[in-house]
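Next comes one such specimen:
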Amino acid sequence: MSINQLLEDLEALGYNSNVRIIDNKECLYSYIEGNLNSVFFIKDVDEKLKIEYFTGQIPVEKEFTTIEDLLKFVRQVFPIEE
């Protein structure tokens, strides 16, 4: 699974995204402009995509096996208002 492909997909949906190195691993950092509660990180771990985000001060982690399932989840949890 390609972090760079995911970066392009998220940017096409309207999310601001950057690739960063965290703990010596490539990580995708994304958010919705103007919404501080919309920050999430995506890592490729053992052929699974792992998303990390916060609800309040509580960290949440979820794993996905396909980019399509991950993008569906992101659109539901972090909707972009038009």
Q: What stands out?
A: The chain has one domain: 3-77.
